[in-house]
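Record 1 of the preview.
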Amino acid sequence: MDAFALNVERGSGVESDVDVLLPGLLLRPVIAEGDLDRELVARFQAGERVAFDQLVRRHQRGVWRIVRRYLRDDADAADVTQQVFVRAFKALGGFRGAASVRSWLYRIAIHAALSWIRDHRREQASEIDEDALACAPRAPTEIDRGRDGVRLRAAVAELPRKQRLVLELRVFDDLSFKEVAELADCSENTAKVNFHYAVKRLRELLGADPQ
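->
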């Protein structure tokens, strides 16, 4: 396998201010993925191994964010992120495009993070039980900054599991509802419904006026 650099950026690129999330949350645009990922996959499958390095550069930050929600330590998250791309490299030859490349990578990331938790459950038992890491992902670490960020993190943690996952994928990872549905194992309409109720509940918890 060609060497690739995994240089994850930490603590940047995700807004932490409650005003960004509420009340304008429903109006926040989602970044279109485009066709570049599929082009890179096709080039990789045709034997151009350097195309995989470009996929890593495009998605390593998002994959790290997904993994970091499940794990407590930045170094552990970086190690698991590396494992995600090793698994992706081995499996990419069989990728057929049923899902987007991004959601395919994120699904690998979720499974890898949960596998890490299972493998380390004994040594991390008290921490895992305390934060219920095996049941639901943690809120992104970037929202820890400032008083409003603390309130927002606490409010997100109170959401039901499905609502919390849908909200995090939609808002913090800029995924489309189709991609959210793929990762949350539900229909696109169900993802939208869960997102709606998550936003409504956050507004109640944070004292924002309903709209």
